[in-house]
Amino acid sequence: MKTYDFDEIIQRAGTGSVKYDMCKELFGTDDVIPMWVADMDFRTPDFMVNAINKRMADPIFGYTLREDAFYGSVKAWMEKRHGWNIEKDWITFSPGVVSALSMAILAMTKPGDNIVVQPPVYHPFYFVVEDNDRKLIRNPLRLEDGRYRMDFDHLKSVIDEKTRMVIISNPHNPGGTVWTKEELRQLGEICVENDLLLISDEIHSDLVAKGFRHTPAASISTEIAQLTITCVAPSKTFNAAGLSTAAVIIPNHGLMAKYKRILNAVHVGFGNIFGNPALVAAYEKGEPWLEQLLDYIGKNISHTMDFFEKKIPGISAMEPEASYLLWLDCRELGLSQEALCEFMIKEAKLGLNDGAMFGTEGVGFMRMNLACPLSVVKKALANLETAVNKLQA
After folding, report:
1. Any idea which fold 18-45+287-392 has?
2. Which position among 8, 46, 172, 275 has the lowest Cβ density within 10 Å, counted as fewest Cβ atoms?
């Protein structure tokens, strides 16, 4: 089996990288270690690059179809990795998961309808609701014993005659919680009872830590599947967000027809000519690479959790059950959110995500991306330790 090098330092500044080349704009300086936006500092796997190069050898980059391999690879990956047997005609396309959320909202709700999200949560959830003239309803998660939990009683209390949809992050971003089958069953049954659509963003589903298992929300029952739209992509798993290629899984034929109407109306259905073969290569050949990635990220997380416990007691990290994103509880530092962000930039020299962007429940928190070489993680932690010690002196 080929061994992949995740310790390699790759120069990304000056390549048009959002993660690196937007630092000055976002943080006011380039003198930070970028550990914010959710892309990895590891090479996109060679089998995906080879698939793109093969397609590039064809001298015409015209309109292209998604052939059977696209659907077959998604189907096989869902069954092998997540135990979910899906049909080809359940699968359609989106240029990205956030685009899919927006198109689902346009297709299946109308202006003024209520849509529920569960903060703190991935911040584009707010945008796709409010920017499309729907009303955002918050069903805050509860932080208990180092893990987020859904508040089903509160959810029931905010559902009314105008509520049409619930959007979830499964697994959860930014907290890394892997929702259990029973949690998803309870949520799905509430949706069934109230005739609500369930949109499940499962883009981090392949990045589940050892000892945990991802459950596709739509896999729980036929009734839940009939009102669920599942969004997946190889982009987070294989570091290929720039290929703008995602799969949307909709078992309900009526909902599929509504979604495709919007997909066609906004004319993004052809997708990226290189994204199709890259997705197929990822799902057909990617398991050995992914297992090595998960081992490496797991070691980064273990090192970081141990470091915080022993050397930075003023910050507690929620151990993620999935993803490479670490949710940092910085409330014991006693700083306002503005001061906390400034502290991370100017004192720790770190470019992290402001926790408040995930909702008011994220005030006092920061999000750290650990999908980088361990040497970078160690440097970042040393910076943070020095800064905290200086603050507390």
Report:
1. Aspartate Aminotransferase, domain 1 (3.90.1150)
2. 8
Tell me, yes or no, if the pTM score tops 0.70.
yes
Place of tokens 């930039």: 345
Q: Spell out the SS3 assignment of the chain.
A: CCCCCCCCCCCCCCCCCHHHHCHHHHHCCCCCEECCCCCCCCCCCHHHHHHHHHHHCCCCCCCCCCCHHHHHHHHHHHHHHHCCCCCHHHEEEECCHHHHHHHHHHHHCCCCCEEEECCCCCCHHHHHHHCCCCEEEECCCEEECCEEECCHHHHHHHCCCCEEEEEEECCCCCCCCCCCHHHHHHHHHHHHHCCCEEEEECCCHHHECCCCCCCCHHHCCHHHHCCEEEEECCHHHHCCHHHCCEEEECCCHHHHHHHHHHHHHCCCCCCCCCHHHHHHHHHHHCHHHHHHHHHHHHHHHHHHHHHHHHHCCCCEEECCCECCEEEEECHHHCCCHHHHHHHHHHHCCEECEEHHHHCHHHCCEEEEECCCCHHHHHHHHHHHHHHHHHHHC
Residue 94's DSSP bridge partners are 246
Residue 393 has pLDDT above 90, yes or no: no
All residues at 6 or more sequence positions from 386 whose CB lies less than 8 Å from its CB, including other chains:
348
Confidence of residue 216 (pLDDT cuts 50, 70, 90): very high
Going by C-alpha positions, the residue among 273, 276, 322, 324 that lies closest to residue 303 is 324
Cβ atoms < 10 Å from Cβ of 20:
19
- Please give the class, per CATH, of domain 60-285: alpha beta
Pairing of strands 114-117, 91-94: unpaired
Q: Rounded distance, CA 353 to CA 341, Å?
A: 9
Residue 90 CA to chain centroid, in angstroms? 22
The structure tokens 């396309």 sit at 93
Whether 77 and 100 have beta carbons less than 8 Å apart is answered as no
| Tokens representing residue 182 in the block | 């029973």
Give the gyration radius of the chain's Cα atoms: 21
Res. 296: pLDDT tops 90: yes
Structure tokens at 75: 């189907």
Which residues have a Cβ under 8 Å from the Cβ of 335 and sit 6 or more positions away? Answer: 343
Any idea where the domains of the chain sit in the sequence? 18-45+287-392, 60-285
